[in-house]
Design brief:
Layout (H helix, E strand, L loop, with lengths): L2 H11 L5 E4 L4 H11 L5 H12 L8 E6 L1 H4 L9 H7 L3 E5 L4 E3 L7 E3 L5 H11 L3 E8 L8 H21 L2 E8 L7 H21 L8 E2 L16 H15 L6 E4 L6 H10 L9 E6 L1 H11 L6 H19 L6 H4 L1
Helix pairs in contact: 6-7, 7-8, 8-9, 9-10, 10-12, 11-12
């Protein structure tokens, strides 16, 4: 394990108020989003869309790294240039999603465990040879009647830690993503309670597995009200609850926290991130690792039409710039009108 290389990469991913573009949707998820837009779902259309994202002019001004899917990391630009090379040439860092998805947890109805540890060492070695320098694994925690259970939290925390240790062994910076879902009618207080419980379990396991905290990143949920809750917390309340929870649970040795958007609108995800940077001194870099909250405006603008590529890229670059501004506490709704 090259400790210094891991530390340097982790720092580079959260440097200069930049964030990550999560474009690691599985083929089935990509198909779903294409269908919603009325776009034909073929491998070539997926390739063309990913080329649009990767080749967006000035994207590297706001984005440090891109999280790819297995299909994507093997794809290339229309002229044959591998996507990995395009990312590097633009000054960004390629990464890869390596988990195989959340599956039902035996004996625990309503809960899941993320699979993919079998054969992971070999897959990580192959991705490193392809040029990836960081990876991502997502554990999913649902809030509901009687859940999450201690067992459900423990098994996902353990898997995240084993994944992280394997990543560092081969030279990949692990992005550890324990996501407490927004789905449900739970309160802000209940989300706070569960998120704290999950993060404590995750860092206990990371320490037990000997994971180098300085060579990893955390990708957590924001602490929010459930999407079906009658009482929705304000932007200020979400930012305060999220930061307070992280301060209780995340060691200062971790170089950065890159939030997932978790189904929030593009504008709301930026507003929450922006408020976290108002008058606070934080021990880690706090930034974004958004998927749909970055991509959706571009996908809608493109709509599968080659003639719309430029306007779609403008939409992506604008969304990324809004989030970089949020990392500096400088985002405002006037940026949306511009």
């Amino acid at each position: 394990m090259n400790t210094q290389a891991l530390i340097d990469t982790a720092k580079a991913l959260v440097a200069d108020n930049k964030g990550l573009l999560a474009m690691d949707e599985s083929s089935s998820t990509c198909r779903k989003r294409f269908v919603e837009q009325g776009i034909e779902d073929t491998e070539e259309m997926r390739r063309a869309y990913r080329e649009l994202l990767i080749t967006t002019p000035r994207l590297a001004e706001s984005v440090s790294g891109l999280i790819l899917f297995d299909e994507t990391i093997h794809q290339a630009k229309k002229d044959g240039t591998p996507f990995i090379d395009l990312i590097r040439q633009a000054g960004m860092i390629p990464g890869i999603k390596v988990d195989l998805g959340a599956k039902p947890l035996a004996g625990h109805p309503g809960e899941t465990v993320t699979e993919g540890l079998d054969g992971l060492r070999k897959r990580l070695e192959d991705y490193f040879k392809l040029g990836a320098r960081f990876a991502k694994w997502r554990g999913v925690i649902t809030i509901g009647d009687g859940i999450p259970s201690d067992a459900g939290i423990a098994v996902n925390a353990h898997a995240l830690a084993r994944y992280a240790a394997l990543c560092q062994e081969v030279g990949l910076v692990p992005i550890v993503e324990p996501e407490v879902l927004m789905d449900g009618n739970h309160s802000l207080a209940r989300c706070t309670e569960v998120t704290e419980q999950v993060l404590h379990a995750v860092f206990t396991e990371l320490n037990a597995q000997g994971v180098l905290l300085e060579g990893m990143l955390l990708k957590p949920n924001m602490v929010t009200s459930g999407t079906d809750s009658a009482e929705q917390a304000s932007v200020e309340a979400v930012a305060a609850a999220t930061i307070n929870t992280l301060l209780l649970c995340v060691p200062a040795a971790v170089p950065g926290i890159a939030f997932l958007s978790g189904g929030q609108s593009a504008e709301l995800a930026s507003a929450h991130l922006n408020d976290m940077h108002q008058g606070r001194s934080l021990p880690w870099a706090v930034t974004f690792s958004y998927g749909r909250a970055l991509q959706q405006p571009a996908l809608s603008a493109w709509n599968g039409e080659p003639a719309n590529v430029e306007v779609a890229q403008q939409a992506l670059a604008h969304r990324a710039a809004c989030n970089r501004a949020a990392c500096q506490g400088a985002y405002n709704t006037g940026m949306e009108r511009s």
